[in-house]
Specification:
The chain is elongated, with a radius of gyration of 42 Å. Helix 1 packs antiparallel against helix 2, helix 6 crosses helix 9 and helix 11 runs antiparallel to helix 13. The protein is of the alpha+beta class. Strand 9 and strand 10 form a beta hairpin. It has 14 helices and 18 strands.
Length: 521
């Protein structure tokens, strides 16, 4: 609660001191009224003497001391206690319990949940944070006195239209976020090579889950400086690989969005038990490596939960992913839309034999361990659904280092593919089977011409050629029929056979016509 004083005293008004004195006297009178009452009763002249007079006086004293005095004392205590609590609340000494959901975006400061889905993690409470209400302090004449000023490293709880939109889309219910303040108004922030640079100085952040783990997003890309405007803050989760924050669609937050805060100094000794040693954070040796086997196991576990067959690792897809990563570096853009002139992304897949396949590509910028990359993609609905498509059967992953706009970074490209069967129609199957049967039926008749020496000698070229054509067509058609019956796509060579068969058939028919005319003569 904030107390606003809309009409402060002005000493230039006539009678101000007289009014102020009367007000002070009235307050003292209210405070000391019970004592005044007792004194009045004791000094009150007796109307009656003897036992009756003494009894009346005694009753009056009992009422004053035994009833009115405790009643006034109770009122004073209640008012005093309430005022004390209000003052304590306004000065930030009071703490509210704020429930922390198990999404893991503030790990390791707060624990991760055990839920398998975002919905489960959101509903799972992993900790209760004692946070000071914000804003606090007292407002007087347009200024706040005694209030806490948000600082770097503070943990804040906030809610705005964007958090409502994001949480409703992900879980069906609106909720606030808990993040850490990184940048204040006037600060300049740049994310480079997994490190936060604040006002020109590289930060070593012991509260983050991993070193070299802070990479840009669509709102603040890597190696792009941004200055925080007045009234706004740049916030991030401690688990930089699994946090939707100011780098992404959340954007900057306003001071007015904040409802609670944990000052950085108050976190020490309470929330810092799982913080890291940052002495080697700026070394290249601290860069994170991806364990592909572990990462694939995490994806397949998620697919199993959704009754989807597992993916298998395919080195050919790793090659296509490497080629695409280098293309992105050349184009200075990490995007599925990047394409060299005169070539499509599908051409890259087809060079490795992925012709009749559904294919997918997911590029990610940064350095990730297996769980981090998996958590990062689980945070975003579109990427989570990408790995749960039933059409995909194989996966390949490439990690390639380079520079984007002169900024050192790494691109991880994941390629997925799934075979799409041709599903030939019954008419197609019957057509090819009939063609094979007809060829076999006529083959023996044309072969018998060789048993007639005179006719064979006179027409040897045509007889040999028609038998050669029929044998070739039978061989080729047998392979095509077998492929069709197995519901498999024709190989490039077999597709060439189909294109050539029409001319072979025309040549066969022409030779047959000539030989038939000669045999009739």
């Amino acid at each position: 609660m904030t107390i606003f004083v809309s009409s402060p005293f002005h000493t230039d008004k006539p009678g101000f001191l007289h009014g102020l004195a009367n007000s002070i006297m009235f307050v003292f009178f209210c405070l000391l009224f019970p004592l005044f009452l007792v004194i009045i009763i004791l000094k009150k002249p007796r109307i009656k003497t003897g036992i009756i007079g003494v009894s009346i006086k005694l009753v009056e004293i009992i009422i004053a001391v035994g009833v009115l005095l405790p009643l006034w004392a109770g009122i004073y205590y209640g008012v005093g206690t309430g005022s004390y609590q209000v003052i304590k609340y306004k000065l930030g000494y009071y703490e509210d319990p704020i429930r922390i959901a198990g999404t893991g975006s503030m790990y390791p400061t707060f624990p991760k949940g055990t839920g398998k889905t975002i919905e489960e993690q959101t509903k799972e409470i992993v900790d209760i944070a004692q946070m000071n209400p914000y804003p606090n302090g007292f407002m007087w004449n347009g200024k706040v006195y005694g209030g806490y000023e948000i600082g770097r490293g503070d943990i804040v709880s906030f809610e705005n239209a964007k958090t409502d939109e994001l949480t409703t889309r992900a879980t069906g219910e609106s909720a606030g976020f808990v993040k850490r303040v990184i940048g204040l108004p006037g600060d300049e922030i740049e994310l480079r090579d997994g490190i936060v640079t604040l006002n020109g100085k590289e930060l070593t952040e012991k509260y983050t889950a991993k070193a070299h783990s802070t990479f840009g997003g669509d709102t603040l890309p890597d190696c792009q400086k941004t200055k925080i405007p007045d009234g706004e803050l740049f916030v991030m989760g401690d688990n930089r690989k699994g946090s939707l924050d100011s780098r992404f669609t959340l954007g900057l937050i306003s001071y007015q969005d904040i409802d609670h805060v944990i000052p950085f100094e108050k976190q020490k000794g309470i929330l810092d038990k799982n913080w890291r040693d940052t002495s080697h954070d700026l070394d290249n040796s601290s860069k994170i490596q991806l364990d592909r086997t572990q990462y694939l196991a995490l994806i397949n576990e998620k697919r199993k939960e959704n009754n989807i067959p597992p993916l298998t690792y395919q080195p050919k897809l790793q090659k296509t992913a490497e080629e695409r990563a280098r293309t992105m570096f050349a184009a200075n853009s990490v995007s599925v839309d990047v394409q060299p002139k005169g070539e499509t992304r599908q051409d890259v897949f087809e060079r490795q034999g992925y012709i009749h396949h559904v294919t997918g590509e997911l590029p990610t910028q940064g350095y990730f361990e297996a769980e981090e990359l998996f958590d990062n993609q689980s945070e975003f609905v579109s990427e989570k659904e990408f790995f749960l498509k039933k059409d995909y059967q194989e996966i390949g992953i490439a990690e390639v280092e380079g520079k984007i706009n002169g900024c050192p970074t790494q691109i991880i490209v994941q390629h997925l593919a799934g075979y799409v069967p041709p599903n030939y129609s019954e008419d197609e199957k019957k057509s090819w089977q009939d063609a094979l049967t007809n060829l076999k039926n006529v083959q023996s008749g044309w072969q018998t011409l060789k048993t007639y020496p005179k006719f064979y000698t006179e027409n040897k070229t045509d007889v040999d050629r028609i038998n050669e054509i029929i044998a070739l067509r039978i061989t080729r058609t047998t392979a095509i029929v077998a492929r069709i019956n197995a519901n498999q796509w024709l190989t490039p060579e077999e597709s060439t056979f189909v294109d050539e068969d029409k001319s072979l058939s025309d040549e066969q028919n022409a030779i047959a016509k000539r030989l038939n005319e000669k045999s009739n003569n």
